[in-house]
Amino acid sequence: xxxxxxxxxxxxxxxxxxxxxxxxxxxxxxxxxxxxxxxxxxxxxxxxxxxxxxxxxxxxxxxxxxxxxxxxxxxxxxxxxxxxxxxxxxxxxxxxxxxxxxxxxxxxxxxxxxxxxxxxxxxxxxxxxxxxxxxxxxxxxxxxxxxxxxxxxxxxxxxxxxxxxxxxxxxxxxxxxxxxxxxxxxxxxxxxxxxxxxx
Length: 199
Hints:
Elements: H1 2-10, E1 15-20, H2 22-34, E2 41-46, H3 51-55, E3 65-68, H4 85-96, H5 103-119, H6 127-135, E4 138-141, E5 144-147, E6 163-169, E7 175-181
Parallel strand pairs: 1-2
Antiparallel strand pairs: 3-6, 4-5, 6-7
Helix pairs in contact: 1-2, 5-6
């Protein structure tokens, strides 16, 4: 991975983006900073999904950006419990004593879909009616509207909107994920403006 930041530095790259695992981004970013490579934007998916991964970077994680699938500020509610996104995140933190994470909303939405499919099928033993009910799913969930076969060539995909965020030091937890771009879903409020990397 070390050769990558050297190539980025030689090419005067201003934006680095990718989907890597947490140990790789920690190694890359630490070595890049040590070698004087500091792009204007570092936007990483997957590796920076969980707060623990950004915390592993120490203070070097300030203003690193990432795609954001779901937050407590998303304007959706559960079709099962009626909980808002905020209510679900608060309940999670109260029970686990840990910071909310983006996958919580999607894990919950899977339960919503399963319950809806069972309700509209012949029951757990009827695989054909379950498949049919799943194909016909049109459900407003805690992560938004789910319906298979939307735009695009894949019949088994349902797209949900993304917004953009940056990890910021401080607040209730060591790092907070702040939404800084919401063109994909303007109903999610901005928590701040895009700021330069300070590492």
